[in-house]
Design brief:
heterodimer, A: about 120 residues, mainly beta, 6-stranded mixed β-sheet, 4-stranded antiparallel β-sheet, 12 strands, B: about 110 residues, 7-stranded mixed β-sheet, about 0% helix
Amino acid sequence: AQKITQTQPGMFVQEKEAVTLDCTYDTSDQSYGLFWYKQPSSGEMIFLIYQGSYDEQNATEGRYSLNFQKARKSANLVISASQLGDSAMYFCAMREGQGNNRLAFGKGNQVVVIP
Amino acid sequence: KAGVTQTPRYLIKTRGQQVTLSCSPISGHRSVSWYQQTPGQGLQFLFEYFSETQRNKGNFPGRFSGRQFSNSRSEMNVSTLELGDSALYLCASRSAGENSPLHFGNGTRLTVT
């Protein structure tokens, strides 16, 4: 069974607008971590933001914020004020338990920012 | 601080050959893991090393192996290459903090012909 689901098709976003990328997850663990990564065409995976399962506040990192709804098992990424450099694939990932490197990734969302 | 460095960036091999990929983690990171990325299967966890010991392994055949050296550098090896092994192989390192994220390298793109 898939642990991370990202089902949105490719998205075109107007520069300076906000975009929300959906992510739902499946786990029976009480302790887990959720991550968002950006992968531009160069291939490197760039860490954007982290949300722990026990964190009560939604995580924010600059223009990135995470809309964490634990009961619904969703962790949507919001990118505010989109820039051309935001064009990339975006991956949601989950780490079950703590202190390990085993992430389960979703299939990703393609975002293209247009001027 | 230098990021995760992977070499080579590109590799072309023939079916049946073997290949070794190298990864140097961020200085001070002792935990290294490897992922395979393909268009069909997406990103899949291969294995994880910490202090020269394999700590976790994904669901890949025994042809895929790895090791970590005392300086935390890691290598992964794929023997008897198959066409389906063509992929982007990503290495990541992590610091000791419980919630610390993985930091990935640029990857090695392997093409098997």
